[in-house]
Amino acid sequence: MVQHDTSEHDTNERDAIQPGDTAPGDTAFGDATAVISALLDRWSDGIRRRDLAHIAAQFTEDALFQGFDPEPSFGRDAVSAYYGKQPAGLTADYTLIRTSALGDHAALGYAAVAFHRPGGPVNVFLTVVAVREEGSWLISHYHVSRVQ
């Protein structure tokens, strides 16, 4: 497992692998773990900074997004609206449990995430599907399940 306490990473380390980059020695796909880690690092950095545009930019234009709302939503505007209603001070730390390549332009990530909120942490499992669009890796499917 790869554990990420994003509060301890600096921006240069977090952005070491950019969307579209490949890991040394890999094919055009790159390493699924590196791709998912870089993407979730940028996502969690946006949450920490409460930068709604940055968070939404990590998703495809038509992304399926299933947070804690009862119904799924779709697209960057919905992602931005969802995080806009979250409390100030929210952060997200994750531990990757599994990643895998789904082809040259898609990767799957499964992680345990602790959302730290003013009222206490909320622990979830997060599944993401990342796709490569025009050279950038973006989240096309996002689904959380609360850990009870």
List keywords for this structure.
single chain
The biggest beta sheet is recorded as: 7 strands, mixed
Rg, Cα atoms, Å: 14 Å
Mean pLDDT across all amino acids = 84
Q: Calculate the terminal CA-CA distance, rounded to whole Å.
A: 21 Å
The chain-level structural class is alpha+beta
Q: What fraction strand?
A: 35-45%
Helix percentage range: 25-40%
Rough outline: globular
Give me the side-by-side strand order of the main sheet: 1-4-5-6-7-2-3
Number of strands: 7
Give the low-confidence spans.
5-29
Tally the helices: what do you get?
A: 4
Q: Sketch the topology as an H/E string, one letter per element.
A: EHHHEEHEEEE
Can you walk through the features of this model?
The chain is of the alpha+beta class and about 150 residues long. About 25% of the residues lie in helices and about 45% in strands. It has 4 helices and 7 strands, in the order βαααββαββββ. It has helices spanning about 10-15, 30-50, 50-55, 75-85; strands spanning about 1-5, 60-65, 75, 90-105, 105-115, 120-135, 135-145. A 7-stranded mixed β-sheet has the order 1-4-5-6-7-2-3. Mean pLDDT is about 85; it is low at about 5-30.
